[in-house]
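We emphasize that the prediction below concerns an isolated chain of 203 residues; any contacts that depend on oligomerization or on bound cofactors are therefore not represented. The input was used exactly as deposited, without trimming of termini.
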Amino acid sequence: MTRLHELLHPSAGTILISEWLTGTTERARAAADAVAEEWAAGEAPPARLSQHMFVDTAGSGLLHYAQWTSDEDHLAWAREYRGSVISRVDTRVPGIERPGLNRTRLRRSLVHDEESPAGVLVVTMGRPDAHEEPVPQAPGLLAEHLHVTTDGERAIVFTEWTDSAAYEASTSVATATAADPYAKAPHAKTSHAKTKTYILHSA
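Result of the prediction step, given as a token string:
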């Protein structure tokens, strides 16, 4: 899977992150294919620097990761074109739930290993104050990328792992050490946080 630091665009003024809930893996991939076809069929807006989709490994849906020059440029495009694009996708895959768009800025990017391929991307959404410190290094942890919404209310943390087994092992250690207030778990799940695992969708 392509690494996230390879996807980051230096000219991005905003990073837009959103979930589409589809319910099944088949519907998630069908929705991703429909979106990819929409991109290919139309002229890409100059202000959209890149756009990628990740498929939830549990089959619940998609995660969109788009980089634009600015929020204003994205809003101008959305007012004119988004409705028709969404309508065509919904015709092919009806019933997609869209909880909302997160307008974010990349606050921290730590790459521990630039060369190893990532087998899974773990995305955690929670309070910014719960993610002030970097995720402690653990076997299989390749990188961490912290995004914070423009209103300062939500942190979205992307961690890249060699595989799902390495991530699960880190959470097992976190659970085992939770009773010890002096133990620093490699990847503890905080309360009020939502965590999902994804892989990059290849159209």
